[in-house]
Amino acid sequence: MHRPAEFQPVEAVVFDVGRVLVEWDMRLLFAKLIPEPERLDWFCANVVTEEWHFQHDVGRDLAEMVAERKAAFPGNDTLIDAYATRFLETIPGNVPGSHDIVRELAARDVPLFAITNFASPFWREYRATEPLFDLFGEIVVSGDEKLAKPDARIFDLAARRFGHRPSAMLFIDDNAANIASARDLGWQVHHFHGAEALRADLTERGLLG
């Protein structure tokens, strides 16, 4: 009897990075720079937003983005510059438990890959600080490819790079749209809500003891 894709053996595990392996919150940076709560709320909702930042994840030029934003929101130049120069301060630490899972998978010789929506310069800056990614094979970075999740094309590109069929890979992401896109393309998926649930899933699949 043919088993559904979600019960097929997993040959490789593919991680998202932000909010699966590392915590990320742009508000943390600007809370250091804007003492007034109401102004902080306004700035994060209107000026340096996650939606605007996503343009950089897809490969838009940082200098162009910053200049455009300064023109649109005069009087905020220093704050907008901070986005460009202090991005690592939006990453406060690791998601609890996730790095342990990566190390345990690596110790069991499970092939590890990643697909991340991450701007190229910010990724290079962050990657240099985090040796965990030495345990990974290919890492597909949206800013390098000018493609971002949930676009099907980035999943297709990743499958070619990783060398495994989508149905033989488990993709882990916290974003429901990304999970839906991968599932539609035949990947096995885990919608991340914390390391404990991920560990239970991986154990059930026989990937962890």
TrEMBL record:
One of its GO terms (molecular function) is hydrolase activity. Keywords: Hydrolase. PANTHER family: ALPHA-D-GLUCOSE 1-PHOSPHATE PHOSPHATASE, FLAVIN MONONUCLEOTIDE HYDROLASE 1, CHLOROPLATIC. This is Hydrolase. It comes from Novosphingobium lindaniclasticum LE124.
